């Protein structure tokens, strides 16, 4: 996605820095001109986050490079970079075909034969004359590191013959280098697949970002709520008959001790179940002996991963949202599995909140087509949600092999939540634009 001049300048600067510890200031100046004179940040290295992390550059700034700069950078990639050293050895004896041997020092070598030399009439063949031809490696990735020659006295061989031998040798060496030896691998015993029941999900769960949950969701097997709710909100949900589990944020980044303490307080209220979307969250929950439901963030994508989850002590788990419905139907293992079948799927989990780059701190992103992507806090991170919701309400009979479905609510209000749940139970898709996620399309 970058112009070739920028790519060439960037690679050349990095190569120089690796080789010598510094890069040519003139090259860095050209690199800055061809891409941007502003918009650079120090990333996360300083630990400072906020608006200063967002590099902003104008179109005029990006297109500021002159034709002279472009032409000079073009020279960097006009010819192939010669980075593979070779050693060549030439043998020329009377009444025998000339032989050229070339090796790259990495176990690859070739030997080619040329014509039979003739007695020299005017100028006899010398090592120096041969070197000028054999070490001419332009247009290839090779450069001559060493050259040896054994040449009989009073012999002659045309230069075009030597050139032909060199071209053939380098061509054959390239072919040999393109062939790699297979790495030894012993296939381990993998668990069987396709061992699950061939029926649609039986249970439904719902995930919320607050405690404002209507009684309509009492039909859910389980509701996931943030661990940041007040004690009184947890108690209210339990008093109303909800089976409650708390969601541990996927992005912790230093919140581990606080999460540990808060889970202890929640457990004392009588709630012993958590939704854990990363291995760190799993370990925290295990340390205080809570029942663990695995979230999609664990990226459980095959039977071996599901077996790991079971051995780790996870009760059940949502499988990866990158699996297709057909792939889910072929999973094995014994741990109960679920799928996310409704809601705005998280597209990205970012440490720095994109809203920090907006003066109004608007919690959404807009792309060039005007599509809006909501932003939501997730512990020490921010989730970028899809611009359209996932909805599989009318495809539930096709979702074979999963034990439960999860409805994810994020930006919807209380009325919208109830309507979505009603449509879900009746097998109808919500009105408006929606997506099927990757369940039928797969990862492309």
Topology summary:
Elements lengths: L3 H17 L4 H11 L23 H4 L4 H12 L5 E9 L6 E5 L5 E5 L4 E2 L7 H8 L7 E10 L3 E2 L2 H20 L24 E5 L14 E5 L4 H9 L4 E5 L7 H13 L4 E4 L2 H9 L3 E4 L8 H10 L1 E5 L6 H5 L7 E7 L2 E5 L13 E3 L5 E7 L2 E5 L4 E2 L12 E5 L5 H13 L18
Parallel strand pairs: 1-5, 7-8, 7-19, 8-9, 9-10, 10-11, 11-12, 12-13, 13-19
Antiparallel strand pairs: 1-2, 2-3, 4-6, 13-18, 14-17, 15-16, 16-17
Helix pairs in contact: 1-2, 1-4, 8-9
Measured between the Cα atoms of the first and last residue, the distance is 18 Å
Structural category is: alpha/beta
- CATH class of the largest domain equals Alpha Beta
CATH topology of the largest domain: TIM Barrel
CATH architecture of the largest domain: Alpha-Beta Barrel
**Fraction of residues in H or I helices:** 25-40%
β-sheet strand percentage:
15-25%
Strand line-up of the largest beta sheet: 7-8-9-10-11-12-13-19
Annotation, overall tally of beta strands? 19
How many domains? The number is 3
Q: What is the number of helical segments per DSSP (H or I, 4+ residues)?
A: 12
Q: What can be said about the biggest beta sheet? A: 8 strands, parallel, barrel
Radius of gyration: 33 Å
Unreliable residue runs: none
**Mean pLDDT, as a whole number?**
91
Shape: elongated
């Amino acid at each position: 996605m970058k112009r070739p001049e920028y790519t060439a300048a960037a690679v050349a600067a990095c190569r120089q820095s690796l080789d010598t510890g510094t890069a040519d200031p003139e090259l860095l100046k050209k690199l800055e001109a061809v891409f941007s004179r502003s918009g650079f940040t120090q990333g996360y290295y300083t630990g400072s986050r906020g608006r200063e992390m967002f590099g902003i550059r104008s179109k005029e700034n990006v297109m500021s490079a002159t034709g002279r700069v472009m032409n000079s950078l073009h020279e960097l990639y006009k010819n192939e970079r010669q980075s593979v050293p070779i050693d060549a050895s030439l043998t020329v004896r009377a009444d025998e075909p000339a032989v050229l041997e070339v090796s790259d020092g990495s176990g690859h070598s070739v030997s080619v034969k040329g014509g039979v030399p003739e007695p020299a009439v005017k100028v006899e063949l010398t090592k120096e004359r041969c070197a000028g031809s054999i070490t001419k490696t332009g247009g290839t990735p090779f450069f001559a590191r060493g050259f040896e020659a054994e040449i009989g006295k009073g012999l002659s061989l045309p230069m075009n013959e030597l050139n032909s031998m060199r071209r053939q040798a380098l061509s054959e060496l390239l072919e040999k280098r393109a062939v790699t030896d297979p790495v030894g691998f012993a296939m381990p015993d993998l668990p069987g697949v396709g061992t699950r029941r061939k029926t649609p999900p039986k249970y439904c769960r719902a995930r919320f970002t607050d405690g404002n949950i209507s009684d309509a969701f009492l039909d859910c097997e389980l509701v996931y709520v943030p661990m940041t709710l007040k004690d009184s909100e947890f108690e209210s949900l339990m008093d109303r008959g909800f089976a409650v589990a708390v969601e541990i944020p996927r992005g912790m980044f230093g919140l581990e001790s606080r999460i540990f303490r808060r889970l202890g307080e929640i457990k004392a209220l009588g709630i012993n179940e958590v939704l854990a979307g990363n291995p760190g969250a799993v370990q925290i929950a295990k340390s205080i002996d809570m029942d663990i439901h695995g979230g999609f963030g664990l990226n459980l994508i095959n039977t071996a991963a599901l077996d790991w989850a079971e051995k780790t002590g996870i009760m059940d788990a949502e499988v990866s949202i990158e699996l297709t419905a057909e792939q889910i139907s072929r999973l094995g293992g014994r741990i109960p599995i679920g799928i996310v079948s409704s809601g705005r799927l998280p597209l990205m989990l970012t440490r720095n909140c994109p809203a920090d780059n907006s003066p109004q701190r608007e919690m959404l992103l807009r792309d060039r087509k005007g599509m809006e992507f909501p932003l939501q806090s997730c512990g020490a991170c921010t989730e970028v949600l899809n611009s359209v919701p996932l909805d599989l309400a009318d495809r539930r009979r096709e979702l074979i092999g999963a034990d439960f479905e999860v409805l994810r609510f994020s930006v919807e209000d209380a009325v919208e939540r109830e309507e979505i749940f009603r449509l879900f139970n009746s097998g109808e898709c919500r009105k408006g634009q929606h997506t099927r996620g990757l369940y039928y399309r797969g990862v492309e």
